[in-house]
Amino acid sequence: MALINLHEFIENTIAEFDVNYFSQDKKLPEAFKTYVKANVGGEKFSFLDYTTIVRTELSIYCPNQWFYIAAYYCKLYPILKQYKDLVYSSAELPESPKDYQKFFADLSGDKEKSLGILTKGELEDGDKDLLATFISDSQWWRGGKGIERNDFYYSPILSAAALVNQSQSYVAEICKYLVDNPTAWEILLGEIQGKSVVIETSTIFESKVLVAFMEECMRVFLQHDPNLSKVSFKENKVTIGFKGCPIGKILSEFEKVTDDRRKDDCNKDIQWEYNNEVYCYRKEQSKDSFDVFKANFNSIYRDKYEIIDDGTTYKLVEHSTVNSVVKATKRPAGYQVIYYGAPGTGKSHKVDENYTRGYKSFRITFHPDTDYASFVGCYKPTMKPSATNPNEEEIAYAFCPQVFVNAYVHAWNNPSEPTYLIIEELNRGNCAQIFGDVFQLLDRNTNTYVGFSKYYINADADIADYLSKHINNDSNRYADTLQKIYGLSSFDFSVMGLPDNLYILATMNTSDQSLFPIDSAFKRRWEMEYVPVNYTDAKQFTVKLDDGHLYNWADVLIGLNTFIKKETSSTNKILGNRFAQPKTGNVIDSVTFRDKVLFFLFNDVFKDNEDFSQAFFEGHDELSFFEDLCESSDNKTIIRFVEAICGAKNLVQTEVTPEVPEEPEA
Known about the structure:
By secondary structure, the chain is an alpha+beta fold. The chain has four domains: 6-193, no CATH class; 199-323, no CATH class; 336-529, 3-Layer(aba) Sandwich (Rossmann fold), CATH 3.40.50; 536-645, no CATH class. The protein contains 28 helices and 23 strands. The strands form seven sheets. It has a five-stranded antiparallel beta sheet with strand order 5-6-7-9-8. Helix 4 packs across helix 11 and helix 4 crosses helix 12 (182-192). The model is unreliable at 655-660 (pLDDT under 50).
């Protein structure tokens, strides 16, 4: 077994926590409320808009944020429990649990002694080292209570969530509940991730015959949970089951039956093992025993199955969760917005998460060869059935719409919801050439008919013909709207104007601004929104140059961007928080750092800059070019750059042996 490093797991989970999201007022999903009421007891809960009242001996008022925070930090509980369980199974513990508290207290701060007690089982050295740290250093995992306590997980979860232990300890209990009830956890996680989780119920089978129904239930349960491992049975000498409902008999005992009248009492085809005995299903059941059977299995498998008795028919239903995307609730700052910033700041992610999620969007990436035909549309050769021979095809020419026309048609045909046209890398294309006459449509009304194009254009005949066939003009809605807005005495489909539900969102990197300069007339028709470098997001990543040199990516990035701004007297070439992405986990390896970050510096930011090269390779005359870094197995120059120029601190603590002064000569 290879254990997850608990300390890194907790710290990375904290780094990814979005404080702004979880501090907002939250409503709980209806699916979550329904599930909790059905499986815990509806009388215990009162769900208000932003507060939940839990009734025990007292009434506990819980802000709904607690449930979402618990769902986020739930991932810590199974890892913490895994560590504790491994300690208990691998350590030489005192005979009496009463002595555990003193036993673990004596190990605090003594890792070597902690290693010494891990003698049972076969642990890998790495796992043993992690467990010894877990035992001896509670600060390593943000612990506060001894691991011998049942509530030992309270402190790390509450510390990670930055909550006050006394008043908000219920968050840790909610974590445990969610782990034990994965459907409830899945519903809340889906909400956090922008997905609406709905519980769907379907009937697996039904019967009016009680014995046959219970028999079929056992088949389903055994298929879902081999040997019924989640069930705690009450055992007698030859039977097994629940109090008032024996459901199994020892197979070997049943096979001894010689009385023909008793040979149909059990079904040998339904078998399972329990405590080293093989049991078969006992068919002798009554309505009373069924009620016990139903109550127990509805509790044990509540996440998956439910037995229903409506008085005439017995049903086994299955509950399953279905994800659907939660639509974004925000709208852009304008009908045309350019999101600009350094490469890797998450401009496209911002567009998708904040605006387009759940709605129809059309996407194009501009490049130097993008033109009007590839943005709006053009005539192209296509194949159609031959006029003389239907079994053959012949070449024909037809108008083929591209992303702009497709978005235009969809927006007019779906006026009740937004349609998005996304343009990536806007300034990598020649916008004047690409937009052509569409440029005129970008002026939007701000007074009457807000959001519609201020001016219309007359499209070519081929586009007009396409629009006449694909725009829904029921009741002349399309024609009447355009005539009314633009005061037209007559209408034909060559008239084009952008509707108020069509948003055009573009992204561009400031480092690429020299490709195709965007003129002021074009930019005037757009809102401009700067996307800054998110250094908080960068904190979750580590740059690993070798085993002895690890750096926080945020520290490297802050120092690097400060250096770039100083040397270039500009912000155009700084790097974003996601410029370098880890291949796995949260660690950016040395090759990724070299080939992404350093390549960008040498070949873009400081291209043909000898002063930078000399400063970078200072003290290493044998190295002069970026390619020399690729061929060298020595990371010393990169380490010196990260520490001396970027000012990042090595996270690996190395022990320094103090020099012992020499004895003076007599």
